[in-house]
Every structure is written in structure tokens, then in C-alpha cells.
Amino acid sequence: MTATTSTPLSHPANGRTASSSSSSSSTTLDAPLTNGSSAHKHAHAFATRAIHVGSEPELSISGGVSTPLDLSTTYRQTRVGEHKGFEYSRSANPTRLAYERLIASLEGADVLLAAALREQGVTDPAKFEAGPGGLAFASGSAATATAIQALAGQGGHIVSVGDVYGGTSRYQLKVAGPLQGVETTYVDMSYSTAGDGGEVESDEDQDQAIVDRVEQAIRPETKLIWAETPTNPCLSLVPIRLIAAVAKRHGVFLVIDNTFASPYLQQPLLLGADLVVASSTKYISGHSDVVGGLLATGNPAILSKVRFLQNAHGAVPSPFDAWLLIRSIKTLVLRTRQQSLNALALARYLEETAVPAGLVRDVRYPGLKRKRESPAQRRERELAWTQLSDDARRWLVREGYSVDGEGGFPAGGMVSFHIASASPASQTETQTAERFLEHLDVFTLAESLGGLEGLAELPLLMTHSGVDPEHRRKLGIDGELVRLSVGAEDVDDIVRDVAQGLAAAVGGKQ
Ligand SMILES: *Cc1c(COP(=O)(O)O)cnc(C)c1O
């Protein structure tokens, strides 16, 4: 413990023996291909890394194929200062380190970090004192707080996407505001309202409208741009590459909350983001049984800063939670594929059957192809395709999907829509939506998302009840907006459940 406090930026897990074990793993699954133009490539595809990184049999003295769960809080030193890379479990724990290597690999932080370190003359990334490029936290909120503390500084300014996670805006306004003197400006970074013209706009004009809104919000003291995509609960998309270019031009960092997409579908670091934050409570856990968070970056300076704060705050997950998350990630690809297929089927039912029947309106699903779509909707669908990870896009192409295919393509497990109230009354009228939610049988009425079981909620009165009413109105969060986290149950049961819920809530009234 004393060693870590006296040398705050050093990662104790890079002592003699530990570095040999992590470098042996990094020569197999983790390793960037160092030759030629493949600086940003892994030796293995996402699905392979998700199963093997952090679970190398060499980590276990028995050769076990499951990561050893190391519950020790402290570690023997053979002589003063001589140890296997671990001193005290808050600072570094073998199970958590295995999980952090896995995060770094899935988000692509490891290859970016290796490349950045090579430029600084460091040839063995396993020796980098701040760790492997991924960091585990006790919750997504702890990761968010750490990122804002590290990057916004004292008296800095944040340009944030408007429909940011409620807990994130709470931290921006009520913690970073008073404690760091940080101001936050909220900006619409989506195509949904880009331009506002109503006329058919060129792609360039649509892009420029987003760039203009972000640039108008940037000040001399702006330190970072904070975005989330897809957003919550409206599932708008933010063009990461475009915003990353703006961030670069103005010398500010881009942070992307990758919770809703999960690293299988989207890897923001590879699209130009500087730091990824996510709540692993959602898709990464996938079983609604772990609260956790993560940060990932390929920038050595950012990594050192957040790593220092991780140890200083001590908001780390238990070794058992880290172990559970390693176990969860082994099925991330299978879960995400099935939940995305189910969500697309449900979105298509809503768009093609429930909308014409007058039961719902404004179905939101990133991959949905509508019969008639506005230029902004087309642009958003194209963005949903281009922003997919290479691995996810390869899967979709293999399955016969394309960016313009009829009906659309699977792109995540979240669907939201407005229920058609019998009397489209006030903004706060929730009766019809409540009736719908209470009639669901397969879906459980609950907050959160990403689990194998379908969850349904009413953002106005549940996840977004703390958001300023005027801000909520602007985002379109009213008493008719319903958010569904589609599970991996049988797809016919899922669609039938929503259909009977709508019939009970809306149908009977008409
Ligand atoms: C849940 C969530 C968070 C916060 O994570 P916790 O693990 O609940 O602290 C942050 N961002 C998004 C998008 C989330 O959905």
C-alpha cells in the first residue's frame, strides 16, 4: 500500500513475475500485429478475444480454463519491495487485472495504447505502469465521476449531448459544477432535428448542422465533449467520427458512453474517441446481477490520470464481481446477436403493424428501415451501419443484412416508441402507457437494461423522473414514451406480449 501511495502513478501489477504472465498472454490473443499497416488490428476476432482474453490457463497454477478468483486483500513480499506485482488488492488484484485486460481488448484500447507507447519508445506495453488500457470500477457512475474529474479539471467546461444519462447530468451539474467549478452546456448532436429545415438536405448540410451546434457551444475553457450513442431513452445516434474531428480541431477530449451499444456493436476508440466509459451493469453483465463500470483508453496520459484516481478513490469492484463479468463477457456476442435480432423483429412489428393500426407512433430503433423515411432518418440508419464494429458488420453481412435491406438490420437490443393515447392530452398524461406496461407478461416492468430478460419502463416517471421538465419536453420524453430492453426470450413470445399489451391499453379504448 505504501509503495502505491508514494509512487501514485505506478501500476503495481507490473512487477517482475506479473509482467511476464501478462506479456505471455499478450503474445497470444491480445497482441497487436506490429507489422505493416495493421497497427489497429488484433490477432483474433472479437468473439475469440471475448472468450479467451483474461482466461488464459497460464493464469492458474492448475491450468484451469476459468480465471482464478483471487480474494486476497494483501500479498506476501519475499523481501521488502519484492513481490509478484501485487501488494494490496484495492491497487491491483489478479482477477480484476484479468478483467481489465479483457475490457482493454474488447474496446480496442490495447492496440491503440501499444501504438501510442511505441511512439514514446516503449516496446513492451505490458510494462506500462498505468495498466492495460481498461479500468474496472464499482459502477458506471464511479467510472463517470472519475472521467469527469480527470478530464474537466478545475473551472473547465463540458459540451455534453442533450439526452445524456440522468446520473451523468446529475454529476455534471450537481457535483462537478459546485466542486470543480465545471459548467456543462447541453447540445443536440443527432440527425433527428439537424437543420430543422424540413426540406431535403444534403448529407453534408446535415453533418454541418451538427458540427455548427457543437462548435457554437465550445469555449476557450472547454476541456471535453461528452456523448452517448445510442442515447437514452430516445435512441438517437451521435456521429462519433464527425464529433471526434471537431474535438481534435479544438484540442478537447471526446468521451463516449458506450453502455447502450456494448463493445461488440461499437468501439468508439477506433472511431476517434479518446476515452470510453460504460456501465457494465447493463449489456456487459447481461444477467441483471452485477453493478459495475469501466473506462478504456489508448491514450497513455489519460490512462495514467484515471488509473491514479481509481486507486485514490478506491471505487473498485470486488474480485468476485470482476470474475462474474469475465464469465458474462464470454456470452456477450451470443447475447447481443440474439437480443438485436429480437429487437429488430419487435421494431418491425411496431412499425409495420402497430403504427398503421394507430396503436403507437414514432418507433425508434437504430437499424430500422421505414417504408417512408425522412433524410434525417435515412442518415441515422446509415450511421447505425457505419458505426458498427467491423466484427458486428461482418456478422450482419454473413447473415444477409445490408445497410439498405428491406426492414433494416439488427443494431442493439433497445427499442422505444410513443404509445397512442386515446386522448392525446397533456405532456404528463401517462394512463395509457401505464396500462400497457402493467399488462405485459414476458417483459418485466423495471428500470435498467441489457439483461437476458426483457424489461419495460416509462422514462417520464421512472429513469428520467429527475430530469428538468423543460429539458425533458425538448427531448420528447412525455407520458406516452415507452422504453423496452428486449431480452433473449422466444421472439414470438416477445412480439405477442407487446401486441397483447397494446391491445389491452389502446385497442380497448378505441
Ligand atoms: C446505467 C447507466 C450509467 C450508470 O451506470 P451505473 O452502473 O448504474 O452506475 C451510465 N450511463 C448509461 C448510459 C447507463 O445506462
UniProtKB/TrEMBL annotation:
GO cellular component terms attached to this protein's record: cytoplasm
InterPro entries the UniProt entry points to: Cys/Met-Metab_PyrdxlP-dep_enz, Cys_met_metab_PP, PyrdxlP-dep_Trfase, PyrdxlP-dep_Trfase_major, PyrdxlP-dep_Trfase_small
Membrane-spanning intervals of the chain: none
The name this protein goes by in its record: cystathionine gamma-lyase
Lineage: Eukaryota, Fungi, Dikarya, Basidiomycota, Pucciniomycotina
GO biological process: cysteine biosynthetic process via cystathionine; transsulfuration
Ranges for region Disordered: 1-37
Pathway: Amino-acid biosynthesis; L-cysteine biosynthesis; L-cysteine from L-homocysteine and L-serine: step 2/2
Amino-acid biosynthesis is among the record's keywords: yes
